[in-house]
Amino acid sequence: MSGRETGGDAGWETAADLVVVGSGVAGLTAALAARRAGVRVVVVTKDVPDEGSTRWAQGGIAVVLGDVTGDSVDAHLADTLAAGGGLVDASAARAILAAGPAAVTALRGQGAVFDAEPDGGAARLARTREGGHSALRVVHAGGDATGAEVERALLAATSRAALTVLAGHAATAVLTGPDGSVQGLEVRDDDGRPGRLAAPAVLLATGGVGALYETTTNPAVATADGWALGLHAGAALADVEFVQFHPTALHTGRAGPGRAPLVTEALRGEGAVLRDTTGAPVTAGVHPLGDLAPRDVVAAAITRRLAQLGAEHVWLDATGVPDVAARFPTVAASCAAIGVDLARDPVPVRPAAHYACGGVVTDTRGRTGVAGLWAAGEVARTGLHGANRLASNSLLEGLVTGRRAAEDVVAALAGPRALGRVDAAAPRPVPVADRAVLQAAMTRGAGIGRDAAGLAAASDAVEAASDLRVPTTRAEAEDAALTLAAHVLLAAAGSRTETRGCHVRTDHPVTDDRWQRTSSTVVLDGDGRLHVGTTDARRGGAA
Ligand code: SIN
């Protein structure tokens, strides 16, 4: 990055109109759209650009393109509302889902290639089904490598557009001026060297929080950075207790924390079935859609069955799916790596932390409540997901809100703006927990099936494993973000005394009408204290 060396602790400094933090589907879509509008954009990413969650997405993109008889945006909305357990903001959801076709068409225009129907020519895209969908509406690429194709196409467009990408730099703070508006971003490189990007607009597109748990389908970079950056900048979070556990992560039998390969739900869409270790079906009698029930229902059913049997996994039998290894090459390769032949053997699977349904509160243009701060993708809470995200709505949301956020930034930059000076405040020490202790505590106390005692014990364990530090390396910044995120999640989960969507309280097993349409919110005050409140889920969006 060329820029002005300021010397001393401040490191280098440079300027941009918009700084995008994150290089997944939402971040790159936003950066490309803003660049096309003539905005000076810098994308900051703490690892290599394709290391985020986007590339690991398998199933596809849920979208109504208008060529499937009987499907409609209304039907997609109805499925999204049903999956979301009463907390979806219907008007935000409608706006995002209705913008889906244009977003997918634009992505194809940028070079993304989706799988076509064998007899329909390239124009007619193949569709699959996933849990909670009433129609075949999930488009996919490379069989089960949709995210990889989306990321490939966006990175190719990024290099064609000569976008500036600052890799290997972790965002450590959103800089704000005396009036609270955004003035830029502070970063540190892999060796802890600081730098600053002065900018009137920052877009958080940092992805998820999977590293809060010992086992997750997320890559290692999913360390809740955006939640922490947003909170410290003054933004509100909502619906953070709704962490979605994917029902079928591959049970590798490997000890210790880390990424568990995803076994896409699309396999069940194509006919694979779940059985427990005695051979009994797992979801019979649980939901009319059986194995294709919404994800929270299937994950909770598997968790109950594992507890009843004292088993470590259930089986996913995909041996009846035609040409299964060719249709699902990514899953087939993950299975082969543990000696399982997807075409002949049942696959050992169990739930794993997968997706944050809540996050930084935004409207459908990515606006947070902080002037100059936008958020898009998994880090954001637009109201689309409510208490449980509908399968394959996430890439769609990233595409749509990434573009909309860019348009909103461009409009905001055209108006009057003042980039004030940010005087370097003395960095304040924050709690930083030992990551392994935190992950063990969150896995034990805040997984599928939580209760007040377990949540409190997790909070105590995280606190006991923390010390106060000024983070100066990427690992410390990540651990600080995870520590704050753990406390935020535990506080919100503790306050919601009911079971809804992904939030399963064993001590409050019933869905309580008093919580219907009520979102939890969390803000951080200037003294580092968290405040948990509630808001109407339909008015959760800022601005
Ligand atoms: C899957 O392919 O099962 C995951 C898709 C998603 O998380 O939406």
UniProtKB/TrEMBL annotation:
The protein's required cofactor(s) are namely: FAD
Q: Which reaction does it catalyse?
A: L-aspartate + O2 = iminosuccinate + H2O2
> What is the recorded function of this protein according to its Swiss-Prot or TrEMBL entry?
Catalyzes the oxidation of L-aspartate to iminoaspartate, the first step in the de novo biosynthesis of NAD(+).
Task: Name any one GO molecular function.
Answer: L-aspartate oxidase activity
What does the record list as GO biological process? 'de novo' NAD+ biosynthetic process from L-aspartate
UniProt keyword list: FAD, Flavoprotein, Oxidoreductase, Pyridine nucleotide biosynthesis
FAD-dependent oxidoreductase 2 FAD-binding domain residues = 17-395
Q: In which pathway does it act?
A: Cofactor biosynthesis; NAD(+) biosynthesis; iminoaspartate from L-aspartate (oxidase route): step 1/1
Where is this chain's protein located in or outside the cell? Answer: Cytoplasm
Q: Which InterPro entries match?
A: FAD-dep_OxRdtase_2_FAD-bd (IPR003953), FAD/NAD-bd_sf (IPR036188), Fum_R/Succ_DH_flav-like_C_sf (IPR037099), Fum_Rdtase/Succ_DH_flav-like_C (IPR015939), NadB (IPR005288), Succ_DH/fumarate_Rdtase_cat_sf (IPR027477)
Residue intervals of the Fumarate reductase/succinate dehydrogenase flavoprotein-like C-terminal domain? 437-522
State the species of origin.
Actinomycetospora cinnamomea
EC number from the UniProt entry = 1.4.3.16
From the Swiss-Prot or TrEMBL record, give the protein name. Answer: L-aspartate oxidase
Q: Which Pfam families match?
A: FAD_binding_2 (PF00890), Succ_DH_flav_C (PF02910)
**Protein family (similarity comment):** Belongs to the FAD-dependent oxidoreductase 2 family. NadB subfamily.
GO cellular component, as recorded = cytoplasm
